[in-house]
What we know:
15% strand, 5 strands, alpha+beta, 12 helices, 2 domains, globular, five-stranded mixed beta sheet
Amino acid sequence: MACRTPDVERVADKHVKAQEQIDKLEVSLKSKNEEYKKEFFEEIDQNLADAKITDGKQLDYNNQIKVEYTSEFSLDKIAKVVIAAVNAAVAANNPASPTPGMDKEAVEAYTAVVNTVAEAAKSKSTSAASYSFTMTRLCPGMYSFLMAKSTSILDDETFGTEAVSATVVYYRVMQSIDDIKNEAKWGLAVIDAKNLLDMKVIQVALTQRLASGEIDLDTWVDLDSKYEGIIQMLKDRLAEHGWEAPLEDHEAFINLDKHIGETKTAINTLKGMSVRHQRVAKHIERRLSSSNFLQLN
Length: 297
């Protein structure tokens, strides 16, 4: 059975129609499982090829479904399942390590990755949706892949004015002996830096969702605050790492810069709406004009 947040579960318990609608969402995702799996594996093959890895070996593969209101950001249960599976795979294939598996810092970093991918899938923005797949090098020779897909339903009589989303997260852990031999220089700082850029793209896309009417103002305020908290957490960790490597040529950086243009269009839309929307527009303008928005510190 898919995981459901308490708010959604309470509605389902009280209304037969709500339960039926939720079941439809879950069935809709499950019916496309083979299609999504094929897409996921093809994306993995392409990323491995780009990284010049030809000996990828699967250690684990599975998926998890979460049902929640669009404004909710509570993917901890999915993240814990994914982290546990990844951690077990790392430990099983590196038993000689004094502390086999991922350390606390690595777990925190990867939890943010899981949440970013899943939240990106919930967005209708093309700029954010492009981050619903990620490849992460956990350690030499060990890679984890994530892909998320989401579907939603809006039924005022059953759930109120907010949409309910069902998100499925696919995860796969793979090992490469060639990668160990190559001894490429990766680390937790690289994971955090990329995830920070991805999270900024999703935050930018949030304004587009508000302007299009996909979410309301209260939802925007709540989600923007949560995104900002994650962004600050990643910035703090990068500061601890002493991160100095430039990312101006990184694909995520280039996409962030490109999609800021889409958000400026959304800002103009918000300026023609209510006073509160106009305040949000001014707030976003100040954020985008900040000298460090396109930086990692």
